[in-house]
Amino acid sequence: MANAIEATDLVKVFKGGVRALEGVSLAVEPATVFGLLGPNGAGKTTAVRILTTILRPDSGSAHVLGHDVVRHPEAVRACIGLAGQYAAVDENLTGRENIRMVGQLTHLSRAEASRRADELLAQFELTDAANRPVKTYSGGMRRRLDLAGALVDRPPVLFLDEPTSGLDPYSRAALWGVIEDLTSSGTTVLLTTQYLEEADRLADRLAVVDHGRVIAEGTSAELKARLGATVLDLQMGDDVRAKQALGVLAARWPRDPVLSGTMVELQLDGGARMVTEALGLLDEADLVPATLALREPSLDDVFLALTGHGASVEPEDGVGAAAVMAGATAGGRTSRPRAKEKS
Amino acid sequence: MSTATVAIAVPAAPKERARMTPWRAFLDILVVTERNLIAYTRIPESLFFSSVQPVMFVLLFRYVFGGAIKTQIPGGYVNFLMPGIFVQTMAFGAVSTSIGLAEDLQKGIIERFRSLPMARSAVLAGRTLADLVRNVFVVAIITGVGYAVGFRIQSVPGYFAGIGLLLVFAYALSWGFAVIGLSAANSETAQVMSFPILFPLTFAAGTFVPVSSMPGWLQGFATYQPVSEVVQSARALMVADGPAANHVIASAAWCIGLLVVLVPLATWRYKTKS
Q1: pTM score > 0.90 for this model?
Q2: Chain A partners within 8 Å of B9 (Cβ)
Q3: Domain extents for chain B?
């Protein structure tokens, strides 16, 4: 059994006909971090719930360390840890009691569970709060406790369902550090996220999920490469000129240019020579851009190219999923994904 | 944060600890029971308020309505009333099983339990067992309140036999309310769903007034339904109100019947809940 996690054609349809998964296949090598990237409702959590034996798939199969999740769920449960986006910790128990309970339910002895609880509380900087009921914890503390609970039995395979969603930047960075520590010590991790930055930073390989399907898979470098190389941003100054420029370039360019507000984005697969070509074309049409910039494609670009909508799920400007591939609609892509901009 | 001391290759064989044995299932049940009991001590309000209601009922029926209710029972109406109060309190208390489970579902705790290599039965068994322990405390409180307002048992063994019977009955009811808790969308709904079942069972019964004072069409139901049988058994056992045997047999039959139906039903509901 080469892969730590393997899923083949998982399908799950919920009551009411919601098609959460439409044939998802995954393969995760041991001691690597695999990122499942997608917007809300893409099916990420459903996939994790199937792989952790919480849900049964309607069809398809999945194995964790060679154990079939449907036929031998108890064997799967014995070798996994799960930390979820809802931080499944008991509010009425203290932090220590929470971890000890999980330890005992994974059949550590009472003494061993207590010892592990102290160790993990220290590791996750929760020792001071160890004897306080969890209802007094902050969001970040709950997530850390949840993750600590998932690690009680030192599981070789760890599932992290949106481990940092809703956390402030400081807590997120701290949690990233913890996850990196874990993965560097040989744990296989499958994590889901809607944050491209997170996937890019933590995951060795990525699968982009949208509407219950894997629409792309590879390393983040491979995914970026799929979009071609460098992107040229041409700031045209106003809508009219931007649309004119789009028209001029669309007629002559091998790849469709993308309109983003008053900016035209052009992919350059032919190197620097293409910059002069583009500028030449625009010059002929008397459409010299106000400013221009060159950048590497971000995962946001990959996501946009793959799904036809941006990856940003909280539509700050009220657009979100309605954001459109340019070239198709004149309004262009108004929700510029906010994640990192590589200079 | 320090680096985790995790160094694991890919273990091929399932761990020995993954194997479920009856002993491990039993330990799992104890762990979950303990967890639920700790929660009760952390929210003492819940135990307090679940005792306030029966105390109000005791006072209401003992001093407000009691004078108008005619009974022929040694010791007067208070001895008629208290066994009824015990059973009513147990029945109303069973709602906490449904609320607790609905909350656990809502908060994702059950999701975590499902991903652990623990006994599947432990969540429900641990919940109902914790509620049984809680009921023991409630019974002690009600007994004290009863004594303060003039309730006198006729025999100590009879009292304990009565308490034993009603705890078993309460345990059986808990499984029914577990089904409700697992079916409700949230704890509020669980509570609302419970009352239409509880009201007819506890009031259309010989709990507070003699069944003979009810209209004929209601007497059949009010005599033989489970709450009424248990009340009549408890009354016969605790305050020597007539022969107990028939009521105890009927009550035991109800308890067994309820458990036989409700335990598998709740377990099935838990397994299929997604």
Answers
A1: no
A2: 30, 156, 186
A3: 23-272
Provide ipTM, 2 decimals: 0.82
Structure tokens at A310: 């941006």
Residue A135, in any domain of the structure: yes
Full domain range(s) for residue A263: 228-296
Between chains, do A53 and B9 touch, taking CB under 8 Å as contact? no
A50 found inside a domain: yes
- Tokens for A12, please give them: 């799950």
The count of structural domains within chain A is: 2
Q: Which of A105, A124, A187 to mutate to test the interface with B (most CBs of B within 10 A)?
A: A105
The encoded tokens of residue B2 equal 């320090």
Kindly report, residue by residue over A249-296, the tens digit of the pLDDT: 888 777 778 888 888 888 777 667 788 888 888 888 888 888 888 877
CB A155 within 8 A of CB A80: yes
Compute the nearest-CA separation of B110 from chain A (Å): 8
Q: Which residues of B touch A181 (CB under 8 A)?
A: 1-4
Helix axes B122-148, B245-272, angle to 10 degrees: 140
B120 to chain A, closest Cα gap in Å:
10
Tens of pLDDT, residue by residue over B85-138, are 999 999 998 888 999 999 998 888 888 898 899 988 899 999 999 999 999 999
- Residue A188 in any domain: the answer is yes
Phi then psi dihedrals of residue A264, to 5 deg: -110, 130
Q: Which of A52, A88, A151 sits opposite B107 (nearest CB)?
A: A88
Choose one of A274, A296, A318: the last residue of a domain. A296
